[in-house]
Amino acid sequence: MTLPGTGDIVAGMEKFTGSFTQQEPIPERAIEAALRVLRGGRLHRYNTLGDEIAEAALLEEEFAAFTGAKYCLAVASGGYALGCALRALGIGPGDPVLTNAFTLAPVPGAIAALGAVPVFVETTAGLTIDMEDLAAKAPGAKALLLSHMRGHICDMDRLRAICDAAGLPLIEDCAHTMGAAWKGVPSGRHGAMGCYSTQTYKHMNSGEGGLIVSDDPDLMAKAILLSGSYMLYPRHRAAPPAEAFEAVRYVTPNVSGRMDNLRAAILRPQLADLQRQCARWNALYRGMEAGLRGTHGLSLIERPEGEDFVASSFQFLLPDWPAGQVRAFLARAAARGVELKWFGAAEPQGFTSRHDSWRYAPAQSLPQTDRVLAGLIDMRLPLTFSEADVALIARILRQEVATVLQSGEELAAAPAAD
What we know:
Layout: E1 7-10, E2 13-16, H1 28-40, H2 55-67, E3 71-75, H3 78-88, E4 96-100, H4 106-112, E5 117-121, H5 131-137, E6 143-147, H6 156-166, E7 170-173, E8 181-182, E9 185-186, E10 193-197, E11 210-214, H7 217-226, H8 243-246, H9 261-272, H10 274-292, E12 299-300, E13 307-308, E14 313-317, H11 323-335, E15 341-342, H12 367-374, E16 376-380, H13 387-407
Parallel strand pairs: 4-5, 4-6, 6-7, 7-10
Antiparallel strand pairs: 1-2, 3-11, 8-9, 8-13, 10-11, 12-14, 14-16, 15-16
Helix pairs in contact: 1-9, 2-9, 3-4, 3-7, 10-13, 11-13
């Protein structure tokens, strides 16, 4: 028997049969744009004919307009965007750089790759950066690389006040918040620079890719030169005036990380449709939230009033659950087709890791973050899901939470690899 949505009845129980990693097809308009670039053979952003405008330059103009930024640079990945922004700020070996304790590995990785030192700031139960810990650690730090992890935006007014008081430059990692805002100000527009990702699981899909926005002409001039513009920076349209490049063009290293015209061509039609797509993600999120609300033993992450979020994933907490019970719940959900990630696992798995896995950074005591991550469950919400899929997944999760709590079932940790 097939249920409405992607599900079956197996052994008398509902089972989800869809994929948590299957994205929607690339839009036809984007495919046609990509074919035009391929047929022309001019994939490199500076390989143009006559008065032709490169797809990468057009994407930068359009994304700057979308965010309200003066300047934009398209680059090879979200991780490159972070590193490029840090370099533009002058971050170098030994510099302490603050970032969220709850984030993904490319964020501290971008700091460590410059020889700088990641300093982690505690995480709240709302999955945002802890303001008290930030204020305590801000003096002496060289920058804050703020991760809007899994699309959760903190009180940006309070955060800006802390940064301003400490003279702390702010870079926003908006890999999970493209199209989101805090009190009407777009994500990425609160600090010196905002960085975005167009990796497959993000809000626009070019496989890999990144974007940087800023209103600071000096920072953006450095970023454009860093990205590998050589002396072709006049071909950028969403760029500072030529005089911004004069003082830095001979002293800024080329750390090539340009976006090519093929990926830019794929992204431009997606950007034009982004607001509609964001509304679809949020409808799935609200459906999952409604389906899980009131589940005994499970806590939802309440969204603050000032946040206009874009939810391509969903998180909830199993507060104070023993690790063995969490593992039993994950195994039961997986047996019914529901793929979940646990940020409290002792060993990193796939894309999921935590601060004590990043051993290129000094070990740090983060008891509040550890308590939050111990019960933090995460799942993707791809747009290939229907509302019926979301309702089915929520039913399965409610049932398995109740089963584990009633039975007290626990599952031992897998033995460590030799």
